[in-house]
Amino acid sequence: MLFHDEVITADGPHSTPEGRVLHLHRGGTSVVIDLDAAPNPAIVHWGEELTDSTEQTLRSLAVAARPQRVSGGLDETARATLVASPAGGWLGTPGLEGHRDGASFSVRLELVGVEVDEHRALLSLVDREARLAAQLELSVGTAGLLHQRITLRNSGDSPYTLQHLHLAFPVPWDATEILDTTGRHLRERSPQRHPFGFGTYLRESRRGRPGADATLVLAAGRPGFGFERGRVHAVHVAWSGNHRLVAERTVSGEAILAGGELFAPGEVVLAPGATLTSPEVIGSWGDGLSELAHRFHDEWRRRPAHPRRDRPVTLNTWEAVYFDHSLDRLTALADAAASVGVERFVLDDGWFTGRRDDTAGLGDWYVDPTVWPDGLHPLVDHVVARGMEFGLWVEPEMVNPDSDLARRHPDWILRARTTLPPSARQQQVLDLAHDEAYAFIAGRLHALLDEYPIAYLKWDHNRDLLDAGSGPGGVARVREHTLALYRLLDELKAAHPGLEIESCASGGARVDLGILARTDRIWTSDNLDPLERLVNQRYTALVVPPEMMGMHLTSPVVHSTGRTVDLDLSAAVALFGHVGIEWDLTTTDETTRRRIAAWVEYAKRIRPLVATGRTVDVDGTEPGIDVRGVVAQDGSSAVFTLTQTDTTASYPPGRVRIPGLDPGRRYRISVVGGPTGTAGQSELAWQTHDTTLTGRELDAVSLRPPVQYPQRSTVIELVAQT
Ligand code: DGJ
Fold first, then answer.
1. CB-based burial of residue 653 (10 Å sphere; 0-12 exposed, 13-18 middle, 19+ buried)?
2. Domain total for the chain?
3. Among 49, 173, 176, 716, which is most buried by a count of CB atoms within 10 Å?
4. Is residue 484 one of the residues assigned to a domain?
5. Residues 679, 589 share a domain
6. 502 and 562: one domain?
7. 254 lies in which domain range?
């Protein structure tokens, strides 16, 4: 325990006469914390790693951040400390709010102890009057993410109702533009930008899951920041239940991003001695959004649990057959899948008792004997015999009122009143925090996993949790439900080694690093339209590494948008993720299958690059052209797509940049797939001549993209010459 006047760095404590400053740094990030800020510490720098981190520099940074007293204000101007509160003078959103049966509302946590190891600090905070103690953990990860997590303890002798708890991340004062995402079913993660003015900008999720409209990050940066340039900071809440993210700019000259769980009234009441640990709130920053995203990708990939083997090319049956299950139809689909090189065949919704459409059956997780008289064995055997893994769709947290489960155990359904919450897709939510409900669901899943060689569960979650209580007049349950879900996922993974799980929620309505800590990929969206996917995938990849994002080839007429799309476009857009197919391949002719097989083969060839490389999103290309790629970490190779989303104003289009390569190396450029011209045009010169350019030249001046019809994509490869 260190608690003296000192500067503490990752290398150990350093005493100084002026005060106590803590420096954590790793992966290109420095975090400097003024331990003497009142009433608890304040981060005075979060961003670029300091090259000069002498005691004098750190101390000066702390001093430089101290505000003056001003007329009309407090005698000591309040700071945006780590857990700021009105009792410490803070008039913005408090970091912590609660009470004891309506009293003892005031909170003022003060620092009483500091423990530091290499990249982590554990700050002990206490409010003796409010009888609260907290341990706030700050750590800088391998790629420079700043992680914060707090554990709060009720050290009083009466229950403490916790109303609000968030963790604050200061951002530079010149970060005056906000970026976040919104969306809906079939259009998740649409970006939106706003000026970051005075006041509070609040994004909340009250859906019991992040939701299609949730923002994956709340970002603030210098106006006009893009993917390639412009300093930007962002915060993500690694939690799959209700949460809030706040961007706040005060007239006292502080700008913060903050995030935490969102509690329903009375949801968290800490008994005497009880503790609550918050989800991790994770901050990233970069010169441009790509650098910010790379910190997430790099750190996430270094986890021991990260899926490392080649991502199996998947065929998911949903859009191919919907509820029309029959052994003949599905074995024919499996044959077609195997013929194009699919490695994992996933049987989607419709296989269990009573599930002939989406009005009934959820909860009855037994194979429907009317459709599958011999169980799923004949299908599974068929799939496995063709060299593919078998995957199965489940939606374990849900129940249809029209199910044996709901008829037998109506008390297992989440509700807060005598009437059920508003219905969605004719279904309700099971109370997983109910021991018997949990045991039943866990038991059914274990039984299925024991009976069949299931390599993969597609874990769906098709409705919001509304009015989610433990029963009429009961307590709010989102938090307990979310923790029970995490427990169940962990339990299944431990009991069935090698099992992979996908987080799906009507597509991408449950995308967060809480769920991704215990699953292997997300279903990015039910919208398979490649043009819409370009946006969705780019903004999902702000946090999620591409190989954890399910990206499937669509059938020629997209089911969700009705647009007719080109196969090469669909394949090119799916390349930079976990590739799959969502299409009734039994309806395709030989030529189409050969084309699909060629794309599948190519996807397999570049998947090691996709799973380890750096994503590149190019800013400022001509409207109508989208340029993006993946570059090997060592700069030896790269794959880019040049996608014509619309007609361009210039004809032929002007040169597009290909950044992100090693500036000093020379690359040979070749076209791998997609068109390189339209009818009546001459050939593309750099394709017919042996063209090599250095990474520097590719970034600075680069090359003419091919003339294409709108809604086409060309895939190019760049290989460094030795
Ligand atoms: C929603 C998912 O996003 C779809 O892919 C599919 O699994 C359906 N649910 C099945 O009901």
1. buried
2. 3
3. 716
4. no
5. no
6. yes
7. 94-302
Decide: 291 in ligand 1 pocket, CB within 6 A. no
Given phi > 0 = left and psi -120 to 50 = alpha, else beta, which region is 489?
alpha
Question: Do 232 and 350 have their domain in common?
Answer: no
Per residue in 406-457, pLDDT (tens digit) is 999 999 999 999 999 999 999 999 999 999 999 999 999 999 999 999 999 9
- Asked whether residue 589 falls in the same domain as residue 675, the answer is no
- Whether residue 100 is found in the same domain as residue 234: yes
Q: How confident is the model at residue 680 (pLDDT cuts 50, 70, 90)?
A: confident
Distance CA 291, CA 320 (A): 38
460 lines ligand 1 (CB under 6 A): yes
Pocket test for ligand 1, best of 352, 526, 527 (most atoms within 8 A of CB): 526
633 and 594, same structural domain?
no
Q: How many CB atoms lie within 10 A of CB 329?
A: 15
Q: Quick one: 530 and 655 in the same domain?
A: no
State in Å: Cα 458 to ligand 1 middle: 9
Choosing from 298, 349, 460, 626, the catalytic residue is 460
**pTM (two decimals):** 0.97
Instruction: Kindly state if the Cβ of 504 falls inside 6 Å of ligand 1.
Output: yes
Nearest ligand 1 atom, CA 506: 3
Residue nearest to atom 2 of ligand 1 (CA): 506
Q: DSSP code of 49?
A: P
Between the CA of 98 and the centroid of ligand 1 the distance, in Å, is 40
Q: Where are the alpha helices (DSSP H) in 411-546?
A: 435-451, 478-495, 530-540
Q: What is the pLDDT confidence band of residue 530, given thresholds at 50, 70 and 90?
A: very high
460 is catalytic: yes
Cα 103 off chain centre by: 39
